Each structure stands twice: as structure tokens, then as C-alpha cells.
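ok trying again, last paste got cut off:
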Amino acid sequence: MRVHIGHFSLMANDRITRMGCAATKYWNPENKRNYVYYVCNYSFTNVLGKPIYKKGKPCAKCDGKCSTKYPGLCEGIADAIDKEI
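nice, full thing came through this time. structure:
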């Protein structure tokens, strides 16, 4: 059995800095059915044989310090998240 985990592993990947998804609903007159089409784009892609996380303690490679609002993320990354949401 083949398991499809590509989109999950992309969302969990520590190198993803941006992602966006959209959906559209459409009617197929041939079989008289409604469909919903989903698409997501990511700022990075999976690389075969490469881990989705780097090993180490959270925030170990932060230039500044760990975020108090988003534990486990660097402080500057948390600021960028707030600006984009």
C-alpha cells in the first residue's frame, strides 16, 4: 500500500517559510456532479532522503532568543507570522 504524505510533510518541514492554499467549486456537466479542487503552494519542496527537521533543541540556532508567544520558534520568525496573518 502506498501512503501519500507529501503535503503533510511539507507543512511540517522546518524549511517552509510560506504556504498558501485555495479552493474552487465547479460543476461537471458530463457526470452531473459538483467538485471541489484544492491547491497549495509551498516555499520549499521535499527532497528525497532529506529529513523534514534538523536535529537539535528548539531555538538552538536562533540569532536572538526563543519566542514566548510561539514556543520553539525563533523570536524574529514569530514577528513575521503576526505581520502576515
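cool. DSSP finds two helices and two strands in the chain. Residues 42 and 74 are 20 Å apart (CA to CA).
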